[in-house]
Amino acid sequence: KAEALLYYLTVEGKENREKLAGLLWGEKDELSAYNNFRNALYLLRRSLPEDIIVSDRRVVFLQNTETDLSSIEAVKDPSVPISAEMCDDLLKGFDIPESAEFGEWLLLARARMKDKLIESLKYRITSCYDIEDDEKLQKSLEVLLLADPFDEDSVLELIDLYCRQGAAPKAMSLFREFRSRLKNEMWLEPSSRAEELFRRML
User: What does pTM read for this prediction?
Assistant: First the structure.
């Protein structure tokens, strides 16, 4: 749970001590929760450089740190390299089953980070159109669809790009995968505009 405390502070910044104790030890009485919190904070202080964790009687926060979360904003720049791994869920594979409050926070934080990534990628894509860089545009659209595979507009943009590159089979495969995923996971069908584009490719 000391590790979970570190992750939470990294994502959220400054936080109230009582809230942190309840977040990770909500199943315990108030005194036990606070004692466990203090022990976790002590373990972190021993494990990290002394100037990282700052706390007083009310709040705790981190300073002099740099994380991968800062790279989300940088993604807006087409010159910044991107990869499929950046679409992985925040703290993928990490959970504390006995802390329901932490689990609820983690779900919301993952959604929030994914939304920020999608927003930055869409900004990047607009910039790729502006500078007319099809290579960066293709990579950006492909990564965006890993983050949001149900974004029909981006699917159609990537299909159009593949067709302009003479890769019609790749475009058709992308549409079939999109249509199948939409039907199997969302019980929906592509729009009439998307279906018409697909018919023109046949």
Answer: 0.89
